[in-house]
Amino acid sequence: MIDPKAYLELCAQFPPLGGLSDKVGEILRDELSPQEGVKGAWAVSVGKVPGAVVLTERRLIAVYTTRLLFFFNFPTVQEFDLEQIRRCEAGPQGLYLRASATGDPEDEDYEENLFALEAGPQAELLAALQPLCPALT
Question: Whose CA is closest to 44, among 80, 72, 71, 82?
Fold first, then answer.
């Protein structure tokens, strides 16, 4: 967990974080540790819901809200270990990521998502991810 002052400094350094709701920002603060260096943050949409992805030295963290039963929005955190990202594909719909410990496409223990970004930020995120993910090189 990082303190509120450190989070405000991150928001100043990475403006997409400043656009998160207070609740989602609080969840992200809980996820980050003071020892973890943030390399970048980008505004994304996940299923037309605004959010952000944060790239650290060892993981990619996605934060956004998920709607349940048309009434409830709850914060969602999705974590991708950089060592386990097996697929990273840029396309017109966005950036698709899939991570699994084994790399086996049949493995049922995996994380995946499609993050919609504008073309410039999508290329930036892809360029930042590729050297950090051993399975992509």
Answer: 80
Bridge partners of 54, per DSSP, are 41, 61
Residue written as tokens 């809200």? 65
Domain of 108, CATH number, reads 2.30.29.30
Residue-level pLDDT at 103: 74
pLDDT attached to residue 137: 59
Facing residues of 91 across strands?
94
Which domain, by its residues, includes 99? 4-136
How many structural domains does the chain have?
A: 1
- DSSP-derived 3-state class of residue 14: coil
3-state secondary structure of 33: coil
Q: Which two tokens stand for residue 28?
A: 């992200």
**For residues 2 and 34, is the Cβ–Cβ distance under 8 A?**
yes
The rounded average pLDDT for each run of 10 residues, N- to C-terminus, in the chain (137 residues) is 92 90 87 91 86 92 83 85 91 91 78 89 91 82
